[in-house]
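User: Some background: our group keeps a shared notebook of sequences we're curious about, and every so often someone picks one and asks for a predicted structure to add to the entry. Today it's my turn. The entry only has the sequence so far, pasted here. Could you supply the structure so I can complete it?
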Amino acid sequence: MKSQRYDMRKRAAQEPQDEEPKQPNQEEQLAAVVKEEELGSDGEECEIHVYETKYDTRGEEVTLRAGTKSEIKPFKPKSHRACLVLTRQYSRRAEVLYTELEIQSRHVTRALRKVIGTYHGVDFTTKAVSIREPPRCLFHYQDELRRQAQESNNGQEKSHMRLCLQYMEKTFHREIKIANSSDLPELEHRDLWIAFKPGCLVYRKAEGGREALRRLRSIWEEVDKQEKLISWQLLLEGIEYSGKDVGFMH
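Assistant: Of course. Here's the predicted structure to add to the notebook entry:
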C-alpha cells in the first residue's frame, strides 16, 4: 500500500496543472483590433451622422438621428458605415449634458494611434475611438494629422481625415483664431489648455525656489458640481538629481 500511495502522489506531481489564461498585453490587444478592422466594413462612408439622446414623456431615454421624425429605431444599423458619429446626450430638462464623437473610420483611428498615441481621457486601442467634446487631442495635433492626410496615397483616408479635421475646425473656430493670433500670452483662464500641448516643456519652481524644467504629459480641467471650471491640472515628467542619485519622476 505504501508503494501504491507513493506512485499515486508521483503521478499527480507529474500531471500538468491548469494554468490561468495569459492576459494579452497592450500591443496584442491593438494587433487584434487592427485585424478586426481589416475584416469589417464599419466607418467606410465619408459621412458624419448626428444623434440626440433625450427623455420621452415616459421618462425613458431614446436616441434619434437629428431631424428624424419616424418611429424610434436603433441607430447602429443605419450608421455603422459612417466614419464619424456624433451623439448629444440631453438631461431630463432638455439641457445638453455632453456630446460624444465616435470615430469609426479605420483610416482615422490608425492615424490617431500613429500621430497621437496617448492622450488624457481617450483610449486609442479600441476599434472605434470615442472622444468627449471638446476633442482637444484633435486640436493639439491638427498640423500632424493634416500632414498625415496630405502624405497619404489612399483617397479614402484623405477624405475621412479631411472630414474629421473639418469637424475639429468647426468645433474650435474661436480657439483656432486665438492660437493663430499674437496674443497667446494673454490667454483667459478657460483657454489656457490651448498653450499646453502634450510634449511641450514647462518651467516651474520646485521646492526651495529652484527652477525646474518638466515635460507635459497631459492637461485636464477640474470642475465643480455645476461643471464650472475651477482649475487646470498638469501631469509633468522629468529627470531629477538629488546630489547623489539621478532618477525619473513625475
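Suggested note for the entry: Residues 189 and 205 are 20 Å apart (CA to CA). The helical segments are 2-14, 26-39, 76-79, 106-115, 136-140, 142-151, 155-171, 173-179.
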